[in-house]
Records
---
Amino acid sequence: MNTILLNRFNESQRQEINWGLLMQVDVSLFAHVKLPPHRMKKIRLRLWRQKVDYYAVGLSIEQRREVEYGLLQGADVFAYANANIPVLEMEKIRNTLLAERKGG
């Protein structure tokens, strides 16, 4: 989001927008000057849950957490978002994908 546009928001609103950008959710759905920060947060978290749910269908809570970690870190979660893959193996796959992405 453009820095000039961010100046229209108060600090709490900017924080919610920044969290949304980090979480790679569509901030245009809640980046409105008249929207209070607590509403922005509620929308941001709902968008995040929808994003995680898309990848984590049928996974255990622990497996879902691995998917969330991967999404936050930019890993290709499709490579391991599978109920048949144990959590520790998911973690290894995620770490390998991230290491490969960094070139190491």
Note: Helices lie at 3-6, 11-22, 37-55, 61-73, 87-101.
---
Amino acid sequence: MGDVVVILQHDAKLAIQIANSLRERFRRPVIAENLVLFREAVMRSRADAAVIDLGSVGVETVQNLHSTLNLRIVCTHRIPDEHMWALCIQAGALDCCYEDDVFSVCRAFSEQGAAAAA
């Protein structure tokens, strides 16, 4: 089980849904309302994982956060496509899922953890 995951999601209801689903995988999910609060939450909590809504930030920001903060990131979007998925993977994300597909978000972190343990 990880310690902290920070969630940046434009829809507060979805953010809560994602946080509740990730409680089985992470001890403490933290919801950030914007990028400034997201960065503060990551630094304060020493999080190593994040769920980032591409409706809130661009793929370039995802790449920057992945490289500068060494985060494991799962991206979400209202209607992701293969091109967006490929850009997210190139930016260092583990996956790019539909924003309301909490099962896939959780699975991305679980698969990454299983691969690291193997």
Note: The helical segments are 12-22, 35-45, 59-69, 82-90, 102-117.
---
Amino acid sequence: MPALVGIATVVSFGLDQRQCEVALRLAARDRSSILFGMNPFHALALGAVGAILVGSALVAIYVPSRRAADVDPAPTLRDDG
């Protein structure tokens, strides 16, 4: 009996950890209903989504790196010592 409780606890813990993944998989399965008659593998739609993702990733990389490049290292190094 304690072994069954232990197994149930481990399975429950694993499902709790993967709850977000399960939700995403369910949402992706229902994505075709969002596209209103369009094939989910339509090349233009996939290309647009890819371009949006790449563009947002580039902005997410550029903004913090630009801010870091504007920092003057001399005052920062003087204050560290």
Note: DSSP finds five helices and no strands in the chain.
---
Amino acid sequence: MLELLIIHFHLDVCLCFVEISVTCMCTVQVFSVQLNYEHTIVDRLDIFASAGFGVGHDEIVPFSVRKGEIRVNKESSTFDGTLHIEFVKVV
């Protein structure tokens, strides 16, 4: 979990991933990434399928904050000044 205090600006968040666990290669590790509990910014990411073992995979997420509102992926919601990024395991 990551929380930042943000008031007003445009920002690109670069999320960098790499699959390095040898023990997990026998099972699929799929997860989604949510922003502020309601915006899915990365959906059903399987790092091994996207990049392979030991290779980096980047997801760049542009968003903006203005007048108490956050906008990401053509969606908007109220914004209280805290940016919350959560990784959600997909079953």
Note: The chain has one domain: 2-89.
